[in-house]
Design goal:
The chain is built from ten helices and nine strands. The protein is α+β, with helices and mostly antiparallel strands. It is globular.
């Protein structure tokens, strides 16, 4: 398969050198992966979200960073597909599907992360377009991509602030400045950038949906796609850690027998495998709801929360099972240990997921619905 044949042989060296995988990106273009969830009528593969989640899981199992290149891009594509005008769909989606144009989401700012309503980037009307000014942080595909979904304030005086936010499709050009590549603990091999908009002109035709004030709602819907991706990445990373741990435990001998025969190690392996299976089921449940066109913020939040915490736990347990070797670059578990925290933080911290989950449970209860959706 693609992940084993093409990604695995490159992963360790590219990750260690923090080198961008240009050749893998080209192969993903050829396979149509940049159009995975884009309908066939717009040139995409038209895959359902369950299939997409399984693909991301397999890629992340080999090298989590590569799955991030797809995530940011497809968040952008989903928003255009779901909220864009037909003219925007016809113009952008075929180019997104082939990877001719690719990029990501510009949401987080130096002083606004989980508090999306705290963003300061502005889009001021100027004739037949807008002038963008502001800064964005942690932008995957920021250097090597060329098209971005940008959330900005079109009405800075709006109360509450979310009513004055709008979403734009922004193509690189004058006024788009990549300030730096941000050094990172993990998630290496993929650029994560700080960028700035300096009086950048954006045509009014690039306002997603053609109506101001809808950006906050639109970006929250798009983040459901991102959280399914991150949950699937968590499952893939957790699987990689578990598989490395169980193989090592079966080979490593101590006191005359494989350490896998010791009850303590068996307990670790049992819990790792059980939590991974639970994380996968949560992720697929969220993907199924998204595939049916239903609201999935609760399910995506649950999947993201549990799968990424499982990934972090599995990475640490795999390192402990490896002992001293797990702390060295001779084995891949140190990479899993460095990559896992990104998943806990990315697409909304897990602390934010807890708030999202609790609020949605209460909303369903007060609406007379089954809070957890477990009823017949």
């Amino acid at each position: 398969m693609f992940a084993e044949r093409e990604i695995r042989p490159l992963a360790a060296a590219y990750e260690r050198e923090d080198r961008y995988p240009f050749e893998l990106v080209e192969k993903m273009k050829e396979m149509g992966l940049f159009g995975a969830i884009i309908p066939q009528e717009y040139g995409g593969l038209g895959l359902d979200y369950v299939t997409y989640a399984r693909i991301i899981e397999e890629i992340a199992r080999v090298w989590m960073s590569v799955a991030g290149i797809l995530n940011s891009h497809l968040i952008m594509a989903w928003a255009v597909l779901t909220y864009g005008t037909e003219a925007q769909r016809r113009h952008y989606l075929p180019r997104f599907a082939t990877g001719e144009r690719r990029g990501g989401l510009c949401l987080t700012e130096p002083d606004a992360g989980s508090d999306v309503q705290g963003i300061r980037t502005t889009a001021r009307r100027d004739g037949d377009g807008y002038r963008l000014n502001g800064a964005k942080m942690f932008i995957t595909n920021g250097r090597y991509g060329d098209t971005y979904l940008v959330l900005a304030r079109t009405d800075p005086a709006a109360t509450p602030p979310r009513r004055g936010m709008s979403l734009f499709v922004v193509e690189k050009g004058p006024g788009f400045v990549v300030l730096r590549d941000i050094p990172k603990l993990g998630y290496r091999g993929v650029e994560t950038c700080e960028i700035r908009f300096e009086d950048m002109y954006v045509p009014a035709d690039n306002l997603v949906g053609g109506e101001e004030g809808q950006g906050f709602r639109q970006v929250l819907g798009a983040l459901e796609v991102g959280r399914i991706n991150v949950a699937a990445r968590g499952v893939g990373l957790a699987r990689a850690a578990f598989e490395a741990a169980i193989r090592y435990a079966d080979q490593r001998r101590a006191f005359g027998q494989p350490i896998a025969e010791f009850e303590l190690i068996q307990k670790k392996l049992a819990w790792m495998a059980t939590k991974i299976e639970a994380a996968r089921l949560l992720t697929l449940r969220a993907a199924e709801r998204k595939a049916r066109g239903e609201r999935a913020d609760l399910e995506a939040g649950m999947a993201k929360l549990f799968a990424t915490e499982t990934a972090q736990e599995a990475a640490l347990e795999a390192m402990r099972i490896h002992g001293g070797y797990g702390y060295t670059e001779d084995f891949p578990v140190e990479r899993y240990y460095r990559d896992a925290p990104l998943l806990v933080i990315g697409e909304g911290t897990n602390e934010i997921q807890e708030t999202v989950i609790a609020r949605q449970l209460l909303r369903r209860l007060r609406a007379g619905e089954d809070p957890g959706g477990w009823g017949p």
